[in-house]
Amino acid sequence: MRIVQRRGPCLALSLTVALIGSFVLSACGASGYHPAARAVGTGGTLTVAWGGSIDNLDPAITGAQSIVSLSVNIFQTLLWETPAGKLTPDLATSWTTSNSGKTYTFKLRKGVTFQDGTPFNAAAVVANIQFIEAKSTESVAALGDLGTCSSATALSTYTVAINCTTAYVPILYHLSQPELAMQSPTAIRKYRSNLQFHLVGTGPFEFVKYTPNSSIVEKRYAKFNWAPPALHHNGPTKIANLVFDLVPNDGSRISELESGQANLIESTPTAFYNKLGHNRSYRNLAVPISGMGIYMPFDVAKFPTNSTAVRQAIAYFINKQAVEKTALQDAYPVLNTPLEPGILAYDSKLTKYNFDPSKGDSILSANGWHKSAGIWTKNGRPLSIVLNALSGSNYPLILQAVQSQLRTAGLEVTIVTETAIPWENVNATSGENLTVLEFASNDPAMLLEFDVPGQYFDSWTKINIPALTKLLEDGQSTTVTAQRVTDYDQAQELIMKDALEIPFDINDDLLTMSSKVSGVTYEGGGNDFFYEVKIAK
Amino acid sequence: MALYILKRLASLVVLLFGISVLVFLILKLIPGNPVTALLGTSATDPANVARLTKELGLDQPLPVQFGRWLGGVVRGNLGYSYLDQQPVDSLIGENLPSTLELAGAGLLISLVGGIAIGVVAAIRRGSSFDAVSMAVSMGVVALPSFFLGIILILIFAVDIRVFPVVGGTNLQGLVLPGLTLGLGLVGVTARFVRSSIVEVANSLHVVAARAKGLTPRQVFVKHVARNAVAPVLTILGLQVGALLSGTVLVEVVFSRPGIGRLLVNSILDKDYPTVQAIVLLIAAVYTLTNLAVDLLYPLLDPRVTGS
Does residue B170 or residue B11 have the better pLDDT? Predict the structure, then answer.
């Protein structure tokens, strides 16, 4: 039955089209979405789709290495580490170490001003150290980086001494990391715990706005004229603005790049990294994050991984190359050492566990294990282990592939997958035998965190080997570099011989960018640096 | 009528109380300890765990814990987020506007699209438009919103490039999420509007109106549309629930801030106070909307009374 004439539907449709159309048009016109205009042209905007989650944007407070890559372009540090791992001047022009290794004296660059106009000088350095050390700040990574160096003294306007209670040589490398970036003392005084919304540094980009779960906006600091000499380039940035879209969803980041809304994406999913790498419109850059790479520490107190033989056998049962291929599309190089290449004391000649199931079988058989119904058992107990995976990362994929290989080898393997905080708690409360994680730092002293009793991460591994403890403590306190290398080399050999961990792969941050973007670099340590970026028309 | 409203409000309070008891108990059954979550790297020290357990009152019996939480809610204190280390009400305050924008856009699209298609399909009942639009409506209803979102991104952001993939809270960034949320409900609304109009159009009073010589427009506006709109109002109330729950997926797909994404993160991180507060908020909005619909009903259809 037709109850009205034909004009009725036309009116209804017109109304619908008009309403939706006006909604769409108003949306388009509201703030002028023009992806091409936003993306191209020198002096334009570099939009980065960022995948990580942010605990606190303030580098002095955050506990996550990835966060400092967001603020590294706003700040500068006393020292600059080149991608090759060499320490060079930045806000400090020269430095000396006392014989005791307890005092580090820095001559500071003159004529530097923070983005709020506050002059940079020794008093600013003292204010930063005091801010990090203050209990109310609740600093995590920065406090760890300072180690025993808990105070600073202004010796003159442009000379400052950092004082440590015991010798702490890693402080020099740590002072090149953005966690120990110099923030404006005026801003520190004014904003304290709310500083993440008012970041003020001396770097090439000036903080504009941080909208949690949405974006971070930075703009060119026009007065910037004190770049690290190692860059051989000075003056303000070519691009006018730097925008980080905070996009945890992998697919959305890829779509942002493909749509032109973003010029660059961080944490490119491995499958897309390979695919887009073959497309002329895009370019890949693997930024090596200094540290222990991606690796698998054992809980050496929990049965059955409390047995060296079991740990060694597991190491032989895992085919890292195959895991890389199936879980990560061969996007990352395999790692066989506790320290990544480029770090002081990296040694490629340490004991290795190349994939060799027959060696694993022999070790287990020699230690009283025998196979029953395809499962290794000893004294009636099966060789059963729990793997703890952090969700929202590649780790579950890695551990699923490992689980498959270990089951084939005759182990019972269970995977527990948790988000960050519960994952940490499971690791710290003996709920697992093996986990997988990354640890970033630019000094070999980081080994101490996992391998010496009393350190937080040692609550994960329960490692207590006096000889290893001594080597790591000596390496941290000796000011003779050659001796440090020897100490850490021996420490790594102990770690590998006892199979305290399984190094897995190099920790790269996979970046993919439009081929129109050039000049993306990184500082030693693995933080993306956009100072020299240009965007072609 | 006043008595009816009072009765409904009283039942609303009972309902929300029941929901809060249920949510509280379910969260207590989930494995995991909020104290260790809150302490993070300091959770290895049993003294720290014991101290914080006492501070948070988690050493008290469940009824006492629930009573304290409920007392706080009544006073406007929704608790303290373990994960974000700030009061839950300020967390919700930060995220709610974005979710309301998204739900509003979805509602607008579903109403405008659904009513227009439903009306046209009813008017041209049996036509190819009717058949196609109802089939498409069914298809859209069946399409998962995350899949629809990805399709819309590929077409309108990647290929045509008229809308951004991620747009924060800007209006331009609201279009694709709004369409993702609203299009699924367009199908439901269209089918409901169509059947409602067809039913009213076949009733005797409409035949009588036509027999009196009224024009088709007068018949439709005065006698069909007005009577057909009341059932649509019911759908509107029910859709509020679908819109609020739909924001959870849409906010994740489009990386938008909002209480949906906050809820997902809070569940994954065992941030119980935030989960409790958000679930209670969604339940309150849903029940209040349906109460409002029930109160509007007698105004649209005098045959329906409060009793």
Answer: B11
Contact B216 A249 (CB under 8 A): no
Q: What integer pLDDT is reported at residue B169 of this predicted model?
A: 58
Query: How confident is the model over B75-133, as pLDDT tens digits?
Result: 888 888 877 778 899 999 989 998 999 999 999 999 899 999 999 999 888 899 999 99
A133 near A143, Cβ under 8 Å? Answer: yes
Question: What's residue B37's pLDDT?
Answer: 64
In this prediction, the residues of chain A whose per-residue pLDDT falls under 70 are: 1-42, 65
pLDDT for B42 beyond 80: no
Residue A71: the pLDDT is 83
**Separation between Cα atoms, residue A114 and residue A119, nearest integer Å:** 6
B228 at A interface, C-beta within 8 A: no
- What is the crossing angle of helices B226-253 and B88-123, to 10°? 130
Over range B173-180, report the average pLDDT.
Answer: 92
Q: Is the ipTM of this complex over 0.85?
A: no
Q: Is the pTM of this model over 0.90?
A: no
Question: Cα–Cα distance between A294 and A507 in angstroms, integer?
Answer: 6
pLDDT at A238 (0 to 100):
94
Which residue in the block uniquely carries the two structure tokens 């041209």? B124
Read off the tokens for A290.
């200094």
Task: Provide the strand spans (E) within A157-258.
Answer: 159-163, 205-211, 215-220, 241-246
Residues of A in Cβ contact (< 8 Å) with B271: none
Query: Rounded distance, CA A469 to CA A448, Å?
Result: 7
Collect all residues with Cβ–Cβ distance below 8 Å to B111 and sequence separation of at least 6.
B189, B236
Q: Which of residues 81-120 of A touch B (CB under 8 A)?
A: none
Taking CA–CA distances from A392, the nearest residue in chain B reads: B268
Cβ of A422 within 8 Å of Cβ of B217? The answer is no
Q: Find residues 38-97 of chain B whose CB sits inside 8 Å of chain A.
A: 40-41, 43-44, 83, 94-95
Of B123, B254, B256, the CB nearest to A3: B123
Instruction: Encode pLDDT of B265-287 as tens digits.
Output: 888 777 888 988 998 888 888 88
What is the pLDDT at residue B40?
Answer: 59
pLDDT tens readout for residues B135-160: 988 888 888 888 899 999 999 999 99
The highest-confidence range among A113-117, A252-256, B28-32, B298-302, by mean pLDDT, is A113-117
- Cβ neighbors of B237 (< 8 A, separation 6 or more) are B289, B290, B292, B293, B294
Give me the DSSP letters along A455-522. STTHHHH----HHHHHHHHHHHH---HHHHHHHHHHHHHHHHHTT-EEEEE--EEEEEEETTEE--EE
Size of interface A-B (CB pairs under 8 A): 165
Cis amide prior to A304 (ω within 30 degrees): yes
